[in-house]
Structure formats: structure tokens, C-alpha cells
Design a protein that fits this description.
By secondary structure, the chain is an all-alpha fold. The chain is 72% helix and 0% strand. The radius of gyration is 28 Å and the shape is elongated. The model is unreliable at 1-5 and 172-179 (pLDDT under 50).
Length: 265
């Protein structure tokens, strides 16, 4: 069979056009073993349909998923692994297929600035794998990837909160009753802290909240200024208590002094 792989593209074309499915399947397996994943997947995509109900049906479908994955066609790989898992939930390769659903999605997640729907899908896939196979030797790997994906979501929220902060009052009148950019920054950052309380970005979120509350008070209408300055002052004290070694402690102290001048407390 090794001789089959030593030929040129014309030999592959001859095999591809062959009506001998057993021969094509062995060739596809040898292509896979030799790292010729594109050739292997091309043959297997045709064979998985005719293999249904046969002894090698499971193997052919799972191997197709692996060939696509190794060829970096991650979207098609995740779809194939899902198909395997739904068709053979107790199959010989069910545990591996479940893992590679998440793994395929993990390999194609976008950068944090972009839509994170694929990231959420990957997290859900890994969580399903961990729940269904708690004793799997790949559990720790899945768990580590899941944490990394959650960091992506946290980074996305941080970038959103920072954007609102940087926009400031440019696209909204802070004195109006509508939500301002500073208020949006505060809400986004607070929601992120509730969702991810142990994030490495906790201090950065807290800095945005503190600064936004102070600037919101500074730009508020007369009837809202006192309450907002007091809220900003409380936030500064909370920041100092939680992050006594932060480089922003000086900023917090400066804000507290300015807040006291306004509130008279």
C-alpha cells in the first residue's frame, strides 16, 4: 500500500474515480497515516455516505473529522465531529469526538474585538465534554482551554467598557436623562465583574468604574452632582481597600479630596 502513496496526482485521481470503495478506503487511511490530510478527506467525504451501516462507518466518519482538523478546516471539522457524536453517542470514538468539537471551535475563535459567538460555542462544547467525561485524560486540557476562552470574553467586555470611557460625553449629553457613555462604561464593567469575579482584569475594570463615576459626577446637572460625587467617593474608598498597592491609588486619593470639597462631608 505504501507504493500507492509514492505516485503522482494522477494516481490519486485514478483512485478517486475508482468504484472499488474498499480500495479507496484503504488508500484514504494510508493518506491519513502519511499526513496527506487533504487527499484523505477528499476520499472520506465521498465514502462516509456509502459506509453507513457497515463495520467501518464509525471509523470513517471520525477519521474524516480528524483529517479536516489536521488540514485546519476547523469549521468543517467541528461539524463532522458533531455529526459523529449525534450519530454514535456511545460509539468507539464518542469521547474523542466530543473533545474535538470544542477543540475545532477553539482553533478558530476570533480576536476579542470581534463577535465572540464562536468563543461561546467553544466554551459550551468544552463544558459538555467535561460534564460527560469527568474522568477523561483530556479533561485538564479542555479545562485550560475553557479558561482561556473565558479570558477572551472578559477581554471583549474590557475593550467595550474602555471604548465607552474613551468616548466620554462626545456622543451623548451627560446632563440628559438618557444613558451616557460613562454610565455605559460603569454598567459594562460592573456586569463583567459580576460575571467574572476572579478575572485578571479586575483591577482594570475597577479603575474604569472609579474614573467614570468621578467624571460622571463632574459633568452632571446640578440636581445630580452631590449624589454622584458621594457615589464616586465611595467607589474610590472601595478601590483603595481592594487595591492598596495599585498605581491608581494616588488618583483615588485626589478624587476623594475633590469629592469632599463639593459634598462638604
Amino acid at each position: 500500500m505504501a507504493a500507492l502513496l509514492s505516485g503522482c496526482a494522477s494516481e490519486f485521481n485514478r483512485v478517486y474515480k475508482s468504484t472499488d470503495n474498499a480500495y479507496k478506503y484503504e488508500y484514504a487511511k494510508q493518506c491519513f497515516a502519511m499526513g496527506k490530510f487533504q487527499q484523505s478527506s477528499a476520499l472520506l467525504q465521498e465514502l462516509v455516505t456509502v459506509q453507513k451501516g457497515r463495520s467501518n462507518a464509525q471509523e470513517s466518519l471520525f477519521m474524516l473529522g480528524m483529517a479536516l482538523y489536521c488540514n485546519r478546516d476547523y469549521d468543517a471539522a467541528s461539524t463532522t465531529f458533531r455529526k459523529y457524536y449525534s450519530s454514535y453517542p456511545k460509539g468507539d470514538f464518542a469521547e474523542q469526538a466530543s473533545f474535538y468539537i470544542g477543540q475545532s471551535l477553539y482553533e478558530s475563535v476570533p480576536e476579542p474585538r470581534l463577535d465572540q459567538s464562536p468563543t461561546i460555542a467553544a466554551i459550551n462544547a468544552y463544558q459538555t465534554f467535561i460534564d460527560n467525561y469527568p474522568d477523561s485524560p483530556r479533561r485538564e486540557e479542555a479545562q485550560q482551554h475553557l479558561f482561556a476562552l473565558q479570558d477572551n470574553l472578559v477581554q471583549k467586555e474590557y475593550l467595550s467598557a474602555k471604548l465607552y470611557y474613551n468616548l466620554g460625553g462626545y456622543f451623548g449629553n451627560i446632563n440628559a436623562n438618557t444613558e451616557s457613555n460613562y454610565e455605559s462604561c460603569i454598567i459594562t464593567a460592573q456586569n463583567a465583574l459580576r460575571a467574572y469575579p476572579y478575572s485578571d482584569l479586575r483591577e482594570k475594570f475597577s479603575v474604569l468604574i472609579m474614573k467614570s463615576k468621578y467624571l460622571l459626577a463632574e459633568n452632571s446637572s446640578e440636581e445630580k452632582r452631590i449624589d454622584r460625587y458621594r457615589d464616586a467617593e465611595d467607589e474610590c474608598y472601595g478601590f483603595l481597600n481592594e487595591f492598596p498597592e495599585s498605581k491608581e491609588c494616588e488618583t483615588a486619593q485626589k478624587y476623594i479630596a475633590k469629592c469632599k470639597k463639593v459634598t462638604g462631608d
